[in-house]
Amino acid sequence: MTTKRERFLAAAHGQQTDRPPVGAWIHYGSSFWTPEQVAEAHLRFYHQYDWDYIKVMDDFRLQVPDGLDEITDPAQLDEVVPDPKATLTNLVKQADVLRIIRAEAPEAAIIDTIFSPVQTLVRALGETVIDYLAADTELAHRTISRVATALAAYAAQLPDLDVDGLFLASGAAGRRGIGADRSSARRGRGSRSADRLPVRGAELVGQGLGAADP
After folding, report:
1. Distances in Å between the alpha carbon of 124 and those of 11, 144, 186?
2. Beta bridge partner(s), residue 110
3. Backbone phi, then psi, for 131, in 5-degree steps?
4. Which end of the chain has less Cβ packing within 10 Å, N or C?
């Protein structure tokens, strides 16, 4: 008998399945919830509709210096994730969510969500970030590189968390002119529903990766 997880992994690798894996996700607005509350909401939605996979939202905002809610001076961006190798509270919380969900739903496929570096910054500090990045390419490179390094280190641990896939959300960059061609993004989504790249044995599943941020 095919399990939900087996069905998802077979489909992700282009293999024949008894039927397509079925699932859906919603935004919970859970940025201020505890990991336990976030996991409970996902599990309730999963069980209510008997989905094959659980696509886990990441609503925890990037850890930034205390009191920094919006960028008003470009120099402030150098204070964001000053050490990309340091442990970020938001990523620790997201990992806790994944552990709880895996323990409670061992039969389900789990897909985590990572927002692109630019989207991660926008979600934490507002869209004015894009104006500052667009005005100073060296600042953009420094800032985006630090955030990308932190996110990549987090993604590398997903197989150890028994996660089956990663959804890379990359929608913010092209909207305001940072590094992405929206026509290519549309072509990417129109030509295939997902692109897949291996990540240490996990399956990296990202909608429209043709629009990936720098």
Report:
1. 34, 13, 26
2. 54
3. -60, -45
4. N
What span, in angstroms and rounded, lies between the C-alpha atoms of 43 and 46? 5
Q: What percent of the chain has a predicted confidence (pLDDT) above 70?
A: 79
Q: What is the DSSP string of 184-212?
A: HHHHHHHH-S-EEEEETTEEEEETTGGG-
Q: What is the pLDDT of residues 79-129, one digit of tens each?
A: 999 999 999 999 999 999 999 999 999 999 999 999 999 999 999 999 999
| Beta carbons within 10 angstroms of residue 9's beta carbon | 18
Phi, psi of 198 (to 5 degrees): -70, 140
What amino acid is encoded at 38 in this protein? V
Q: Whole-angstrom Cα distance, residue 188 to residue 94?
A: 28
The pairing of beta strand 202-206 with beta strand 195-199: antiparallel
Closest to 121 measured CA to CA, from 92, 97, 145, 96: 145
180: left (phi over 0), alpha (psi -120 to 50) or beta: beta
pTM of the model: 0.80
Do 13 and 203 touch, CB atoms closer than 8 A?
yes
Q: How far apart are CA 56 and CA 24, in angstroms?
A: 10
The conformation of residue 49, written as its DSSP 8-state character, comes to H
Q: Which residue, among 158, 110, 153, 97, has the nearest Cα to 12 in the 3D structure?
A: 110
The secondary structure of residue 13, as a DSSP letter, is: T
Instruction: For residue 82, give every residue at least 6 positions away whose Cβ sits within 8 Å of its Cβ, in sequence order, or none.
Output: 146
